[in-house]
Amino acid sequence: MKHRNDEPHSPLQRTRIASAAARLMAEDGIADFDLAKRKAARSLGLPETAELPDSAEVEAELRVYQRLFQGSDHDAELDYLRRKAIELMAVLSPFRPYLTGAVLDGTAGAHAEIDLQLFVDSSKEVEIFLLNQQIDYHPSTPRTERAEAVLTLYLDDVVCNLIIYAPQQERVAFKTRSGKVRPRARLDAVKSLLMAPALAGTTKE
Question: Percentage of the chain surpassing pLDDT 90?
Fold first, then answer.
């Protein structure tokens, strides 16, 4: 006889999938929430009809997992990725890039990629700039229809994606699949993220 919590649409099952997906993202470096959810459901032996949690539920579980099981290692990795993002954003300052994605929101796990948004008239401007700076890159497939192009490059051991949009798209508030506004930050704001832990640890004389 089936237990009610084994039903494909039970709240407990959604939580189990979210927890398993979070573990996959943290340990295996899966960045795509939908992929992590599907793999998690399969790993739990659930049918394709099982109701999947939304990305916000997985993100919440991911933050808990990172805090409990990765702790200072995760903090150090996130700090490293943000420093690399700052380094690249400084190089790309003529295009006033935004940092977005897991490196900004703090959920970046192993093998995370840096995502920068650029709003320019043509991706050729960015390509010519990279060539002049002797920076190797290759085109990648855009993850969203709004993006005109994605140029991927390596900064030491970190994969960086330059996601290029038309200038008018800069006024648009991009959203995640779960409907949340996707945050983005300029160079100064990212630098402030690195300063925040140090400031929190200081005391006034």
Answer: 48
* Cα–Cα distance list, 12 to 8, 18, 38, 60, 110 (Å): 10, 10, 16, 15, 27
What is the arithmetic mean of pLDDT over 74-92? Answer: 93
> Do residues 112 and 156 share a domain?
yes
In the chain the first and final C-alpha atoms are separated, in Å, by: 67
For residues 187-204, average pLDDT? 68
If pLDDT is split at 50, 70 and 90, which confidence band does 7 have? low
Picking from 50, 70, 90, the residue at the C-terminal end of a domain is 70
Q: Would you call 187 helix, strand, or coil by DSSP?
A: helix
Q: Are 152 and 161 in contact (CB under 8 A)?
A: yes
- What phi, psi does 175 have (nearest 5°)? -125, 155
Give the distance from CA 125 to its chain's centroid.
25
* Stronger pLDDT, 143 or 204, i.e. the higher one: 143
Rounded to two decimals, the pTM is: 0.73
Q: Do residues 194 and 104 both lie within one domain?
A: yes
Residue 205 inside a domain? The answer is no
Report DSSP letters for 117-169, one per residue.
EEE-S-HHHHHHHHHHTT---EEE--SSTT-SEEEEEEETTEEEEEEEE-GGG
Query: What amino acid occupies position 121?
Result: D
Question: Where does a domain end: 23, 42, 70?
Answer: 70
Look up tokens 């290759």; give the residue: 138
